[in-house]
Amino acid sequence: YDKYKCRQDIARTKMLAGRLEALRNAKDTLVKVMAEENNKDLLENHENRLHRYKTEIKETRAQRLLEGKSDRSLVSNILETWRDLKKLRERQEYIVTSTKLEIIVDDHDNTEEWETEFNRLVVETLEEMGEKNIETNIPKVRDQVFSILSDSLRSPGEPIITFIMSKIEPTSEDSITAKDELQRRLTLSKYSIWFDVIFNGHIVCESTLLPIDDSFSVDVNQKFVVEIHQWPNTLSLNIHCENLSSKNMFTKNPIAELYIPFPLSNTTLDVVDIENLEFSCFGNQSFQNAGVGSGVEFKVFPEDMETQCLYTSGEVLCKAGWGTFNDKVLCPPENYFNRIYSQNTNIFSTKTEKILSLMNDLHPDPNDPNNVSFFEALKNVDEEMVFKMNSKFSVNIYKKMLEFCSEEELDSNPRLKLLKLRDRGEIEFRMAKAVPLKEWLIPKDIFNEFENRVATSELALEVAGLGPLETSRIWGRYSVIKLYDKILKQCKLGNRNKIARDIIVEDTVPDIGTLGLTFMKMFQPKRPLRPKRKERKKIPVKSLSGQEIKVVINVMRAFEVPVRKNSDMMMGDIAMIPVQPFIEISFKNQTSRTTTAEGSNPTWNQDLQLIVRSNSVDLCPNEVQPIDDCIHINMYDEIVIDILEDGRTRETNIHQRLERHWLGSCVIPISALFNSSQIEGIFQMNTPRHLLGYERLVSNSESSHYRNSTFLSLFIMVQPPLHHPEPIMERLDCSESFNFERYLEYWSAEGAKQFPGRPVKTLVIHCSGKSVCVTRFFRPLPLPVISEDVPNTTAEMVARFVSLIPVVNSNVLLIGRFDVWLTGDQLLGLLFGGGSGIDHGLLLCCYFAKLNIRSWLLLGTGVSRGEAAYVLTSRPVPDQPTAGPVYDVWDPLTGQKYSTCDSFSPVQEAYCLINAENIWLNVQYEKSVPRTRWDVTQTRDWNPAFGRYQAAPTTAGSVQPDTVDYTPAAIADARLLQDKLETTLRNALMKWRVKSKTVWNRYCVSVLRKILPNLERETWNGGFKDINAVGNSYLAELQHLLVSHKMCGFPINRPYSNTEVLVDAIQTTGM
């Protein structure tokens, strides 16, 4: 209605109609004059004027038709809205708003005016088509003209409709019986509005709390006085809304910011007019009552097909003027505003952008005297002059006398800077609970990481001179970290609604029962021969500043260590020589080793210690930065080499050298130690399939269980034990229905009560920041083309493909805090996944579903990774169709398959199983993998989340994509990366071999390059078939090299993340 009233006051359509009539009359008069004119010069001038008149008539006519169409559309919308409002009032049986619309109908006949305009428009259209040499069809032109006029002008017989807005009294609260409306009014009565006055970006005034009445209006009636000591640049108003009944103390964010134009010089509050300033905000707010909320889709009537969405908006009535002192107006220099705005204009408080927008919308006539103010204001705008006056403005001379310190001192204050960064929510300081009171207690290098992150932009990755593959890996890792940071910020926003127990910690008042038990313990007999185990006191990770952490590693025994073989290629005889293995652990610059043992199954039972200083490991750099520090455990074979040259002195002289050959390694992330205070189990070492000069002892009885791996039994303990933070429990926006979300929360809570040590995932965070049911992450995905030579893709091939995707190690502060799961296309696009293996496991399950292999995502604990994810598959026994299926466990990070009955499996415990059909919680007494029964149809062993009470989500609602676009292999980029890696490794090896000269054999390098593709193909079948035959074929390739050279070595195979990790892996082998 306000827009309708404004258009009625402007009378734009009427003005254009008069202008069009005048132009048409001028054109007709000019045509008559040209018919009687004989002078050729005057006739040429008349033709130019006639052409200009026709152009103006065409433009004015189009504007008039457009304005008339807008008027008719506005009237139609008002009538439809008033009809819906009356219908809603009749259904609700109460009136909330005070709006009443009076409709006035005038049956004035306009048939003559319609026909006149219709005939004129037809003639002008035919004339314009004739000038353009367009073939004219008079009936068709008349139909087009009739359709255009019907949309823009009042048809014959159609009445003139006008509106008048009036007010009526809303229904009183005593007469309303609807509970939703009563609850809405009660909720509204608890809200209040308050304002902040901001001058040049600083809050200078603040209003009191003002209640909102039933008509959503607030009477402020307050005057704010601002003493100005700076040049006036901006003046704005922040509007805040607060719930008085809520105990939330952290609602400082405004719902809207409103800019107030400065008044002209020498303008006081007595002479300035009240301005109507509009505001709007796009925040989302929903209510459980009759209110429609803000930014929430709703339907006016249940039978409506379309939904509506309204946002909070309103207007503020205010005025601003300069103050006076002793009859003198305190204002800036007069020339400042006189050069920007016109003195005689009625829109002197409007900014330049608003003037331009009004010019574009209204198209004012420059010959109209009422529009002089627009063009005068545009002529006087000079932005350069404003900048010059801003730089020359003199600050109040008393300002510096009142300052207690300078701006430079405030900016350089470390404590104030730390408080500002923490309040801003920077990731480095977001969890800083207590800021020291003294400045000298704050470390000087505390801001280094933040400054480095700010100085390094995202584009620095491409400018660093790296290749395309290296840049993509760094970009993927960077994107994963930024994704975690974004979702963590969203969790922090949900953590702002505090309750009393989150802020105030109170001890419970002891009752009689508690006191009685305390006194009974005092008189109980003491039994010194029955000691009780005391729990070690855990220290929070944040309290480790400047302390030392001792990591004690007990190396017990090893299994299936490869033994040396002394092969004389000329004679063909092979003699077995015992192996002498020892274990060495290293962390950064610290190393420690065991004694030397003998045999393929050695026993040490020795304790090795490492000191981890909190300043050497960035234990908590921020909440999303991953911790890449690891403890490397390497196994070597100690060999005694006799280097005595003269054999005649062998009985009197001893000249020997000790060499060590690398046999395998194992990596334990530092983050895994903070998740569990102690780790015990059998670790599978990363042993290459082929070691030159070594082979494995395989007996005939053990051939069926041959694993081609070395296992190491370890017990690792951290002193003092660490206590990681509590998980984030805030509820984010959920894409599931409300009842479905409550059911999953209830089911998981009941499972946690019965089995508190078995966490189960039901709702996880999608990359969009919303919670999604875990079953929606499963869907068959198209398989990648691994090799064109192999027509059929096997399960081992896709497992190998998934295992080559690098991982981002978890941060201490993120372990178990919140779960962000990536879909298949996101994991393949970023080429980085979480360190727990969930993202890799999801992708592997989707590939198995495409291969028609029944699979589940297994969540449990691993030996070296703590809480981790694996994939469980079932397959029938080939020769026994009636027997039950055989279950296998796949490690998605290594691509290896283990039997559930294998005691050397890296999976220790199984908590739950997930696939597209259901979620199963392990309710068996034993949760270790070898003792677990895997038939999910047995409800006494596995408790399903979905059944007859609640159906599982359909596959159609899966968050996984329908298709995946695989990027073609960048062969040229891979060759560039290969050359760079070879150069880097050559330089690193020559740098490490300080005392020896390094000579490169190019022919040997070319032979080894031919062998590498065969080694890769061997991994596609698991490497369990014809290992000795394959090894002999490789030796045949090296036959001519082994004749003239003594060789020892092994292939290294790992996912590529960056060059530094690969160089460290080579260095730890001691090669």
UniProtKB/TrEMBL annotation:
Start and end residues of each C2 domain: 530-683
Keyword flag Signal: no
Keyword Lyase: no
Residue stretches in coiled coil: 20-63
InterPro entries linked to this entry: C2_dom, C2_domain_sf, CC2D2AN-C2, CEPT76/DRC7_peptidase-like_dom, Tectonic-like_complex_comp
Single GO BP term: protein localization to ciliary transition zone
A Pfam family annotated for this UniProt entry: CC2D2AN-C2
Gene Ontology cellular-component terms listed: ciliary transition zone
Keywords annotated in UniProt: Coiled coil
Highest taxon listed in the record's lineage: Eukaryota
Record-given protein name: Coiled-coil and C2 domain-containing protein 2A
